[in-house]
Amino acid sequence: MHYIESGAGTPLVLLHAFPVDARMWNPLRVRLEDQARVIAPDQRGLGESSLDGSSAHGLATPPEERLVAETPSVDVVAADILALLDELELPRVVLGGCSMGGYVASALLRAAPQRVAGLLLIDTKAPADTDAERAKRGDVADRAEREGTAQWLSEAMLPALLGATTRENHPEIVAAVRDLIESQPTEGVAWAQRAMAQRPDCLDTLQGFEGPAMVVVGEEDTITPTAEARRMAEALPRGELVELPGSGHLPSMEAPEALAEAVRPWLSRVDV
Ligand code: MLT
Predict the structure, then answer these.
(1) Is 122 in the pocket of ligand 1 (CB under 6 A)?
(2) What's the predicted TM-score (pTM) here?
(3) From the CA of 63, how far away is ligand 1's center (Å)?
(4) 12 Cα to the center of ligand 1, angstroms
(5) What domains are there in the chain, each with its CATH number?
(6) Is residue 104 within 6 Å of ligand 1 at its C-beta?
(7) What is the per-residue pLDDT across 96-114, written as a single tens digit (0 to 9) for each?
(8) Residue-wise pLDDT tens digits, 140-171
(9) I need a surface site. Which of 2, 44, 135, 217 has the fewest CB within 10 A?
């Protein structure tokens, strides 16, 4: 599994959204470097992490231990992250995830709650997909396999991923996110869509988490809007909600300064 790491201090693992990779965290990661050891993995099949659990960079998994093209599931991705924590000898971390990364974080919390000292959920949601959402993911996965992902995927997703403020005023952020989407491997995009389609509702898991939890939402997010964030913050026994003006679904790219300002004091209170 490939990952980006920088900084020193509280171990903070950041799980990325779909269909991008660990680079989406760069603007936030550099702002937290003096406070946190930030580890941002490319999740299975995306970025530089392959679909069979190996990687051209980062940790080399011996062939006999590789998980080969598993049935798509966020549980498989969560198991990959746990294996990475073992390799890095990190028994407990602060776990953060944006959107799909939040689904994976919830899966990890379900599998190994003792590894999570604090939970940072950014623009994500708790419910499972409806049948219609599942069918749509199937269509996207099939189309990706048939046609590849160049252009149509970024054109379809950019208007939803980025808030109106970003789309109107920050062409450089739009271009950066487009580049991220268009560089994702076709098979990984299809696999991730099918993995998300299978995820269960995670509200129960959140209700059972006793540690500190911060739920962040961009006020212009239309994919996982404020109502979803509020529901998670209320379910989490120690949940607190932060709303970021001027940001859509990807505040680490759209409003990194405001996001870092919100995360810093919270992170300093988490006991790892
Ligand atoms: C994401 O940003 O990870 C996706 O939009 C989440 C989803 O498709 O549910």
Answers:
(1) no
(2) 0.94
(3) 31
(4) 21
(5) 3-268 (3.40.50.1820)
(6) no
(7) 999 999 999 999 999 999 9
(8) 999 999 999 879 999 999 999 999 999 999 99
(9) 135
